């Protein structure tokens, strides 16, 4: 695959084919994107059968740009459909990142579900006419899960801006409280929808992700949970990750390309306002078992939560305006997967090393290489140190620089470690999973709330969730 070339330990800042056209990188006006893209998808709410028909039709109509697959089934047996949109829809493009959007995990938050169908149609229709979209699809595999909670959507009702009807899955579980949590033990029984997403994210190394919600207008970023929260409340302290700068940047990319989100206005009197239209999740209100923290902590995937509408399930007449407002930020956000550092970890023969563990020094969330030895990390311009470990190899530390204009390409060769005790030396600090391993002194990740405090917290959280999303 690599022609037997010994790549060696290299440090280079190169302009690669995956770089966007110069004129595309500076586009910031919604006017750039055509208003009429031959939609083929109506501005209406699509139930499960209609959504499935649209996805299957699109897949058959655009076989060179789309692939449809199911990651599992809901409680009531509905497929959790994912559409890949890319110039290589059926197989991973070596050296190029996979990204994803997940919508409608709360079944009554319906705007994101419809936006994903329009985004699919927009991308495939624009490929041959729009150089920016062509670059994006030629260099990225975009996975779109329009509805993580199809059962909940079927019982939700148009026009219900608040409340919990349809929010939960068919067993009454909030899917965004059902993931493993770093800060607190999550004892909630795993649900089929959540288990499917966990399995999905374990098989594909996603670099960037957005979870689409409704009930507010803000881009929210990790951590959603905090080590010292007992009750869920507003105006909590932020719970910051080591990648605070990157998460704020990603959130601002979305909010600043949105015509109103960046203004940070409250949805209604008494609701919180958000400076620049972004917030740390825990500073807004802490929650346990959220999807964005799981993606980041377990797999090093940079995920943020996009709250796209003050009304959870607005009238169908508003859908066209929501699409116009979100078309540009949805596209620009995905392109951020091409920011930072990317490359390969190889052995001395030029063969890829799978599941090598990597970490940016002082950023204690690890990530791993794919079976092709690939890695990616979104970073802002600056100078960094990459730590690389793998079974049977001597660890390496490499200094590198990130610039604004294009990703830094960094290829690392690891050499076999000396044998000790009839076996390969294995660094004691090698990480075998992606996880945030700097434990705050006052937190106990394995601990759990119990007794009356657990009951009180659960009841209060449900009340807040139904009101604020």
Class by alpha and beta content: alpha/beta
End-to-end gap = 48 Å
* Gross geometry: globular
Work out the helix count: 11
Secondary structure tally: strands? 18
Radius of gyration: 22 Å
Which sequence of SSEs, written as H and E, runs from N to C?
HHEEEHHEHHEEHEHHEHEEEEEEEEEEH
Keywords for this entry:
469 residues, alpha/beta, eight-stranded mixed sheet, four-stranded mixed sheet, 18 strands, 20% strand, globular, disordered N terminus, disordered C terminus
Structure write-up:
The longest helix has 18 residues, at 451-468. The protein has eleven helices and 18 strands. Helix 3 crosses helix 10 (319-335) and helix 7 packs antiparallel against helix 10. The protein starts with 21 loop residues before the first helix and ends with a helix. Residues 1-39 and 424-468 have low confidence and may be disordered. The chain is globular. The strands form four sheets. An eight-stranded mixed β-sheet has the order 1-2-4-3-5-8-6-7, with helices on both faces. Strands 9, 12, 15 and 16 form a four-stranded mixed β-sheet that branches. A four-stranded antiparallel β-sheet has the order 11-10-13-14. It is an alpha/beta fold.
């Amino acid at each position: 695959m690599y022609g037997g070339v010994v790549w060696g330990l290299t440090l280079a800042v190169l302009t690669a084919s995956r770089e966007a056209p110069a004129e595309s990188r500076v586009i910031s006006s919604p006017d750039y994107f055509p208003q009429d893209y031959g939609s083929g998808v109506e501005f209406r709410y699509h139930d499960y059968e209609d959504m499935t028909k649209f996805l299957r039709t699109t897949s058959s109509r655009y076989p060179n740009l789309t692939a449809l697959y199911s990651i599992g089934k809901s409680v009531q047996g509905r497929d959790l459909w994912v559409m890949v949109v890319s110039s290589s829809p059926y197989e991973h493009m070596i050296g190029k990142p996979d990204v994803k959007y997940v919508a409608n995990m709360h079944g009554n938050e319906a705007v994101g579900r419809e936006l994903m169908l329009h985004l699919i149609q927009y991308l495939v229709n624009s490929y041959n006419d729009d150089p920016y979209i062509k670059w994006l699809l030629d260099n990225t595999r975009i996975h779109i899960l329009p509805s993580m909670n199809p059962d909940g959507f079927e019982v939700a009702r148009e026009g219900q801006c608040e409340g919990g009807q349809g929010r939960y899955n068919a067993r009454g579980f909030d899917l965004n409280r059902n993931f493993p949590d770093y800060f607190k033990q999550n004892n909630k029984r795993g649900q089929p929808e959540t288990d499917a997403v966990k399995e999905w994210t374990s098989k594909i190394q996603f670099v960037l992700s957005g979870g689409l919600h409704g009930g507010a207008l803000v881009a929210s970023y990790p951590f959603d949970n905090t080590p010292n929260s007992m009750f869920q409340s507003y105006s909590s302290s932020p719970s910051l990750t080591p990648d605070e700068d990157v998460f704020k940047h990603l959130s601002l990319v979305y909010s600043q390309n949105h015509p109103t989100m960046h203004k940070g206005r409250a949805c209604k009197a008494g609701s919180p306002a958000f400076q620049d239209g972004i917030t740390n999740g825990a500073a807004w209100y802490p929650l346990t078992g959220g999807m964005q923290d799981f993606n980041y902590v377990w797999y090093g995937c940079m995920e943020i939560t996009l709250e796209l509408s003050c009304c959870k399930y607005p009238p169908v007449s508003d859908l066209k305006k929501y699409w116009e407002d979100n078309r540009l930020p949805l596209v620009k956000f995905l392109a951020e997967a091409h920011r930072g550092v990317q490359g390969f970890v190889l052995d001395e023969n030029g063969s890829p090393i799978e599941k090598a563990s990597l970490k940016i020094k002082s950023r204690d969330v690890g990530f791993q290489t794919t079976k092709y030895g690939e890695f990616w990390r979104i970073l802002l311009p600056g100078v960094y140190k990459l730590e690389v470990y793998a079974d049977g190899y001597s660890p390496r530390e490499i200094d590198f620089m990130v610039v604004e204009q294009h990703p830094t390409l960094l290829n690392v060769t690891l050499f076999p470690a000396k044998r000790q005790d009839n076996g390969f030396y294995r660094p004691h600090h090698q990480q075998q999973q992606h996880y945030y391993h700097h434990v705050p002194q006052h937190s106990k990740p394995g601990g759990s709330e119990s007794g009356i405090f657990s009951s009180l917290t659960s009841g209060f959280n449900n009340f807040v969730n139904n009101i604020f999303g």
